[in-house]
Amino acid sequence: MKKQNILIIGLILLAVISFGIFILVSGKENTGSLETTKDIIKMISIIDKDNKNVLPELETMKVDIKNIDEVTSYTGLKTNDDIESIIVSVPVMTAQAYSVAVVKVKDNADVEKIKQEMLDNIDMRRWICVSAEQLYITNSGKVIFSVMADKDTAKAVYNDFKKYVNNNIGKELEKSEYNFEEVGKLYEKYNSIKEVTREIINEFVKKIIVGKYDSETNSRDIKIEWRYQF
Question: What is the pTM of this model?
Fold first, then answer.
């Protein structure tokens, strides 16, 4: 009888220990390693799956960090200094305003400075005829995560990233594309204009970007891009 009791107690202790190990392992898996490109792609895949009902058809790819134009297009960064890798998740149809960019920086890089540069320079109107409403940026260690989309989608994806890293994050940055109050004032001011003046253009147009002449191809097809205030 005593042997049976000892056996039962032993089995119970074994079950408790096994359950404890399972919880510890599960916790580590939920935290999610972001050390390698494969780890980052896995994280993006999990977030995409959690939000599949609201996200467009996406493709995840590694950006060639030697191509500064691509680096700037996806992250707003002007150089690849201190950048180890960039993974992005973007719509297959480019007319849909959604972008996730995950930037892994080198050891001893100034993460906060890089995050701020991204916040200041990311183009939230990089798509055809559409723009993102909200941008969120944070980091977990050396990995910077940014997402821009409509407000609800951006928030959901951003929260999923924080959950994936167990809220082990740095400073949180965000920016809205639209200042609805200012836009309303402009429309109220110019709701019945009879002619376009310099004053009106200055209030509505943020800047005009004129592309460079391509001396290598002798091309004079210079791109001109208008950026509006809203």
Answer: 0.68
